[in-house]
Design brief:
There is one protein chain. By secondary structure, the protein is α/β, with parallel strands linked by helices. It has one domain: Rossmann fold (3-Layer(aba) Sandwich). 46% of the residues lie in helices and 18% in strands. A four-stranded parallel beta sheet has the order 2-1-3-4, with helices on both faces. Helix 1 crosses helix 5 (136-151) and helix 2 runs parallel beside helix 3. The termini are close together. The structure holds ligand CRM. Ligand CRM is lined by residues 22, 24-25, 56-60, 81-84, 86, 88, 90-91, 94. One of its GO terms (cellular component) is riboflavin synthase complex. 5-amino-6-(D-ribitylamino)uracil binds at residues 24, 58-60, 82-84, 115. One of its GO terms (biological process) is riboflavin biosynthetic process.
């Protein structure tokens, strides 16, 4: 078994998805959102069932995700950001806070919040993972649909 589910096993026609994305490093985050949207469409998620919002930076992403969970009827949120290490400790603090914040939402709400945050040591790593055929957003869209179907017991092992 591969590490990713196949598109034809993921019927997202009744799945409602929220996407919250950071504008920091928008060259990468916008491409990640596009990849995510494309894979949602490939899983038959309807355009009207996708709600997207932007927030300033990755640090704001967990609160943006919480906002979607509180104010919409989404089944899942894809949390998108791109952190690139700079000269200070800022990167480490934000990475830790964001990953903790996103896991907390998963367990508090009992709904999947997909960790779509790139934590890169340099621009090259961000580029490789967000633009072109290795756009990680594609996998995050599929993961979102898979987790909802798992919760709805529509797919299993
Ligand atoms: C990001 O997504 N955000 C970055 N931010 C912004 C941060 C947040 C602000 C306000 O709360 O702190 O929006 O998420 C950064 O400030 C930095 C700078 C890091 C540094 O070395 O000065 N980087 C990012 C980032 O890479 N990605």
């Amino acid at each position: 078994m591969g590490k990713e589910a196949k598109f034809d096993t993921l019927d997202g026609s009744n799945v409602k998805v929220g996407i919250v994305a950071a504008r920091w490093n928008d060259k990468y985050t916008y491409s990640l959102v596009e990849g995510c949207r494309e894979s949602l469409v490939e899983c038959n998620v309807k355009a009207e069932n996708i709600t997207g919002i932007f927030v300033p930076g990755a640090y704001e992403v967990p609160l943006g995700a919480k906002h979607l969970l509180d104010t919409t009827d989404v089944d899942v949120v894809v949390a998108v950001g791109c952190l690139i290490k700079g000269a200070t400790m800022h990167f480490e603090y934000i990475c830790e806070a964001v990953s903790q914040g996103i896991m907390r939402l998963n367990l508090d709400y009992g709904k999947p919040v997909i960790f779509g945050i790139l934590t890169c040591l340099n621009e090259e790593q961000a580029q490789e993972r967000s633009i072109g055929e290795h756009n990680h957003g594609i996998g995050w869209g599929k993961t979102a649909v898979e987790m909802v179907l798992l919760q709805q017991k529509k797919i299993g092992m």
